[in-house]
Amino acid sequence: MTKLIGFTGAGGTGKTTIAKMIGNNVPSYVSDLRAVVFGEYSAYGDLFGQTFTDFQDLIKHAQILLENTKMRADDDDQVIAPVERSLIDYAAYALHQEDIEPCFSLYFKDWLEDYVDDCINLANARYGGIVYFPINKFPLNSRGRESKENDADSIIKTDEYIQELLKRIKVPVLWLKSVDPEERIKEILDYF
């Protein structure tokens, strides 16, 4: 049976790179879905209010569908399937929306609490473990297009939310030590 391993970390910390190198990964369609639904150049920080909550709900369900499809496809084998953007990331981005849009929590407080709880509960139920990708050794000023979610302050804040959310995770959590891709893969495979 496939063991889903959720990868979590702020943007640019290597989640997608390592997931693809390990293989059998469950991709995230967050960028593709965002472009289809909200326009090619839309970024997390450009979405507000009900638009943001609708998108977060959509991408969470799309991710679960991808994970279910992957698990069925690999059901006959014992396979590690890295999830390149886990439910923890979605919860952290939702929490970070409060910082981007100060009135967000006032109008969507109940939705936000329920959404974060749902993401944590699903992660605990679905994943065989979590791999945390730290930001401390990565340059924060080389993220491509500038937007509210990929500037250095935003990356640091998202990372803080992820670390806080990881305290609520009941499955095993690996905090990566290395920045070298081959060493990271060895860490992950040895741990799980």
Provide a descriptive summary of the structure in words:
The chain has 192 residues and is α/β, with parallel strands linked by helices. It has one domain (2-191): Rossmann fold (3-Layer(aba) Sandwich), CATH 3.40.50. It has seven helices and four strands. The protein has helices spanning 15-22, 30-38, 49-73, 87-100, 104-126, 152-166, 181-191; strands at 2-8, 79-83, 129-132, 173-175. Helix 3 (49-73) runs parallel beside helix 5 and helix 4 packs across helix 6. The longest helix is centred in the N-terminal third of the chain and has 25 residues, at 49-73.
Describe the SSE topology.
Elements: E1 2-8, H1 15-22, H2 30-38, H3 49-73, E2 79-83, H4 87-100, H5 104-126, E3 129-132, H6 152-166, E4 173-175, H7 181-191
Helix pairs in contact: 3-5, 4-5, 4-6
Which tags fit this structure?
192 residues, Rossmann fold, 7 helices
In short:
By secondary structure, the protein is of the alpha/beta class.
Given helix and strand content, the structural type is alpha/beta
Largest sheet: 4 strands, parallel
* Strand element count: 4
| Order of SSEs | EHHHEHHEHEH
Q: Write the CATH homologous superfamily.
A: P-loop containing nucleotide triphosphate hydrolases
Distance between the termini: 14 Å
Overall structural domain count: 1
Helices, by number, come to: 7
